[in-house]
Specification:
The complex is a heterodimer of chains A (247) and B (282). Chain A has 247 residues and is of the alpha/beta class. Chain A has a single domain, classed as 3-Layer(aba) Sandwich (Rossmann fold), CATH 3.40.50. In chain A, 32% of the residues lie in helices and 25% in strands. A six-stranded mixed β-sheet of chain A has the order 6-7-8-3-9-10, with helices on both faces. Chain A has a four-stranded antiparallel β-sheet with strand order 2-1-4-5, with helices on one face. In chain A, strand 1 and strand 2 form a beta hairpin. Chain A is globular. Chain B is mainly alpha-helical. Chain B has two domains: 39 residues; 237 residues, MetI-like (MetI-like fold, Orthogonal Bundle). Helix content of chain B is 74%, strand content 3%. In chain B, strand 1 and strand 2 form a beta hairpin. Classes of the chains: A alpha/beta (247), B mainly alpha (282).
């Protein structure tokens, strides 16, 4: 599904990723861990060409998403970004109401009468529907950080991506919201290929099918198989208090 | 001299300078009010001027000023907005961006009489627009272009990168990002720029004096080649009749109206700017 072939990336002379060659299977969760500045975020961003606006960003080699050469001249970068959605460290909601935020990426692609149905579907998918169904007209900025992060995920899911790139999505969240996002990601695995950047080794171990360790722009040998705890007790107790979860 | 004494002296100097500037501003305002208020009779704003400006009101001059300013913005805003979006959203070369920014500042510092001269030769003579409101508005448009460009660029550049990235990550095309994220989020900055540009255009006399305006003989322009009466020209011509107290009183009255117009525009720009800052902090 995702394949790097001799892929290097640099900002000017400063090399960030070096000669990466590896593949990641579809419909799996891959955690990416590594020290700050090791190239984790850059690794995610090249998959949807988020660094195109940066003047001195250079790449060598190839990276493929579902057979599509991401950096081949002529690649439809907008179609690529709809196929490869990205969730950022801090949730970024637009200063609009909740429903407008959810349908922001598909507003011109669906008819107005379908807005409520699409919004409800993806809000249910991220377990946010029960919490916001009576306040869809309120500003999204009134939601908590954890809710905003789930809202940005719903907004991304509405576009219909096959790959989800998550750049430390829980780093600014409290434990309850973190658990909510982790649970949510597990539920999305069957339909999406997920890459999750984190600094927390225990989180990486508990949610991922494989863990990728990056150091100085290079991938260290994969630490598979993962020994996953049968049920993370600390999270379970938290999750029982999260509204909107299916039993 | 120790550091505390030096600091006190600097503080005293800064305080004196600030007081002087504020005092100067209030003196001008006070003089304008004292001299201008007697001319403010019931129909001053809505009556036609009579007896070569010595009596009556300033209705057509005010209307002419507003026409000139409105058309100026119509010319200038699309160009300023287009150049800002090209510079911030499409241009990738940092050096070329810096070059364009410097060029804007140079344009901003150009003496306005040069705009009038070059503008008249190009629009008035070469493009055969003559002495007309079209020529004047085009000259003013070029003149306020840097003010507009800088204000709009500041607003667009102040937009947090996270909004752009959120739009990109949703697969929005660049035009869609501009239309749906950048323009709405920069709206207040744009309005501020337009109001500041208008305030500058409203205060401008030299560039339009001989290229666009007339003192008498015209109420509203009837064609593209007609000049237009404006408050600036009205004030200047009346002020030249220093021996006639009625003319001078009318000039002060028109001056007060012009000052009020500029003051209102600046106040509105300030209000919009405050709103913009508050929105960006969301």
């Amino acid at each position: 599904m995702i394949q790097f072939k001799n892929f290097s990336a640099a900002f000017g002379e400063r090399k960030i990723l070096q000669e990466l060659t590896f593949s990641l299977p579809a419909n799996s969760i891959t955690s990416i861990i590594g020290a700050s500045g090791s190239g984790k975020t850059t690794l995610l961003r090249v998959l949807c060409r988020m660094n195109d606006r940066i003047e001195n960003f250079r790449i060598e080699g190839s990276v493929f998403v579902d057979g599509m050469d991401v950096y081949r001249p002529g690649t439809d970068v907008y179609a690529l970004r709809r196929k490869v959605g990205m969730i950022f460290q801090k949730p970024c909601v637009f200063p609009k109401n909740i429903i407008d935020n959810v349908i922001f990426g598909v507003r011109k692609k669906i008819s107005k009468k379908d807005y409520p149905d699409v919004a409800e579907k993806v809000l249910r998918e991220v377990f946010l529907w029960e919490e916001v169904k009576d306040r869809l007209g309120e500003k999204a900025t009134t939601l908590s950080q954890g809710q905003q992060q789930r809202l940005t995920l719903a907004r991304t899911l509405a576009v219909g991506p096959e790959v989800l790139l998550m750049d430390e999505p829980t780093s600014s969240l409290d434990p309850k919201s973190t658990a909510a996002i982790e649970k949510l990601v597990q539920s999305l695995k069957n339909r999406h290929t997920i890459l999750w950047v984190t600094h927390q080794h225990d989180q990486a171990q508990s949610i991922a099918d494989q863990v990728l360790v990056i150091e100085k722009g290079q991938v260290l040998p994969l630490s598979v198989p993962i020994v996953r705890p049968a049920k993370p007790a600390s999270f379970t107790s938290v999750l029982q208090n999260v509204q909107g979860y299916p039993e | 001299m120790n550091a505390i004494t030096a600091e006190k002296m600097v503080l005293a100097f800064i305080g004196c300078v600030t007081f002087l500037i504020v005092a100067l501003l209030f003196s001008i305002l006070a003089i304008m009010f004292i001299k201008g208020l007697p001319a403010m009779h019931g129909g001053f704003l809505f009556d036609e001027s009579r007896d070569f400006g010595r009596a009556g009101g300033i209705f057509y001059q005010s209307a002419g000023t507003l026409i000139l300013m409105g058309v100026t913005v119509l010319w200038s805003l699309p160009v300023a907005l287009g150049s800002v979006l090209f510079q911030t959203e499409y241009l990738e070369s940092g050096k070329f961006k810096t070059f364009l920014t410097q060029l804007t500042y140079i344009l901003n510092a150009t003496p306005t009489i040069l705009f009038g001269l070059v503008g008249y030769l190009f629009f008035g003579v070469y493009l055969e627009a003559g002495v007309s409101w079209v020529t004047g508005s085009l000259i003013l448009a070029v003149m306020i272009l840097p003010t507009l460009q800088v204000s709009i660029r500041e607003a667009v550049e102040a937009l947090p990168e996270k909004y752009r990235e959120a739009g990109m990550a949703l697969g929005l095309s660049r035009p869609a990002q501009i239309w749906r994220i950048i323009l709405p989020q920069s709206f207040y900055g744009m309005v501020t720029g337009v109001l500041l540009g208008l305030a500058r255009a409203a205060g401008e006399t030299a560039a339009i004096m001989f290229t666009a305006t007339t003192f008498s003989g015209i109420r509203f322009p009837q064609s593209f080649s007609d000049p237009v009466p404006t408050l600036q020209t009205h004030i200047l011509v009346l002020a030249q009749e220093a021996a006639n107290p009625e003319s001078i009183a009318q000039a002060w009255g028109a001056g007060l109206v012009l000052l009020g117009l500029v003051f209102l525009l600046t106040l509105a720009a300030w209000a919009f700017r405050t709103r913009m800052v508050m929105e960006s902090e969301l």
